[in-house]
Amino acid sequence: GPVCTNLGLKPGQRLTVKGLIAPNAKSFVMNLGKDATFLGLHFNPRFDAHGDVNTIVCNSKKVEEWGAEHRETVFPFQKGGTVEITFGVNQNDVTVHLPGHQFTFPNRLNLSVFDYFDTQGDFTLQSLSWE
Predict the structure, then answer these.
(1) Residue 49 · residue 66 · CB < 8 Å
(2) Is 1 a residue whose pLDDT tops 90?
(3) What contacts 26, CB < 8 A, 6 or more positions away?
(4) Which residues contact 2 (CB under 8 A, 6 or more apart)?
(5) pTM to 2 decimals?
(6) Whether 2 contacts 115, CB under 8 Å
(7) Which one Pfam family would you cite for this protein (predicted)?
(8) Could you give the CA distance from residue 33 to residue 126 in angstroms, rounded to a whole number?
(9) How far is the C-alpha of 91 from the C-alpha of 89, rounded, in Å?
(10) Buried/exposed 57-81: b ≥16 CB within 10 Å, e otherwise
(11) Which domains does the chain have, with CATH numbers?
């Protein structure tokens, strides 16, 4: 999927992602971090993948080392539907705003700036905006 670099997202700013979920979606991924090897947030909604059904799995990655998985059981996604997700960058965490739900994920890598964003899997990016 698409890759964005040099985003320069700092605490107090937010990234809004809009897109289309594939009709036969198994899972999709959005990564936010310093670059492809330092991911502050690996956001992975799973319809049916890796043994998870209708679960959002979040993690962080430092080079090749993954952190502990964090699971959210609220799953506001529909196969074949559109979705808008906003990532709010704070000093110590990232707030993930989903339709009708939000949660925070800690900034485990202590990133002061989030420069990198990508999407993978069963998701088509329609728009990306930040403020």
Answers:
(1) no
(2) no
(3) 46, 47, 48, 49, 121, 122
(4) 118, 119, 125, 128
(5) 0.97
(6) no
(7) Gal-bind_lectin
(8) 21
(9) 7
(10) bbbbbeeeeeeeebebeebebeeee
(11) 3-130 (2.60.120.200)
How many residues in total does the chain contain? 131
Q: Which helix (H) or strand (E) holds 70?
A: strand 70-72
- Both tokens of 98, joined, read 């989903």
Instruction: Give the C-alpha separation, 39 to 65, whole Å.
Output: 10
Which tokens belong to 14? 């937010």
Provide the CB-side half-sphere exposure for 78 (13 A, CA): 6
- 70-99 pLDDT, tens digit per residue, is 999 999 999 999 999 999 999 999 999 999
Contacts of 125 (CB under 8 A, 6+ apart): 1, 2, 17, 18, 19, 119
